[in-house]
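Narrative summary of target 7.
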Amino acid sequence: MLTGTAGIILYLESIHYPQRYPIRYQPQFPYAIRSSTHMITTHKLPTTSVILQGSIFNYNGGCVLGMSGSDCVAIACDLRLGVNNFTTVSTNFTKIFKINNHVYVGLTGLATDIQTLYELLRYRVNLYQIRQETEMDIDCFANMLSSILYANRFSPYFVNPIVVGFKIKNSIDSNGNKSCTYEPYLTAYDFIGAKCETNDFVVNGVTSEQLYGMCESLYIKDQDEQGLFETISQCLLSALDRDCISGWGAEVYVLTPDKITKKKLKARMD
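Modeled conformation, tokenized:
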């Protein structure tokens, strides 16, 4: 019987390099290693099945979708708040938050982090408005959100945001008249703040795969306000029909330069 540290080293090496040692020097299970102070007995552990846990981003479910049209943008989400995929806690949990009249943010992921991040964003936006005496534009907000997520990358917020709104461009013509144009703006993030800007649609949440497929099939470029509402509603409802941990109603915001329209939709209730 081998004792002390030498026995442990020989045992570990004999497992990885059995060809180096004769059979008589290879310890067998169960075996004991005696030292001057105590005895350690090692037994072979039984084989157990591994239970794979779901992603923390899927724990509460939910999805968000943004889509652009001609001088209009829309953002939509489901209203379900679940726990561990199977339990429905609330059927009126919105994931869309207003920053100002031209900027909206959608947050999916862990519900507690959604609320914490939104409170931080609201604090930063209000502080900016007090200091600068103007509203935060969408470029500034999108970069600020990216910086916040990246700054917390070692202890991240478990959220996947999207930002939709209008990029306002001011101009002066040859006669000195001022005018502004409203350009639709869409961007999506991962949980450490990497942006993905686009000019058609963005999705995030547990229903992303279904939403991508529906949007690629139904999206039409440069739709008017009513057409955009119909398209984003059909994409969202069709995706929710194919996902069991999202649904229980939905809400849609359609933004134009001069008004905001909010509508609620009926969806799967199982």
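The chain has a mean pLDDT of 81.
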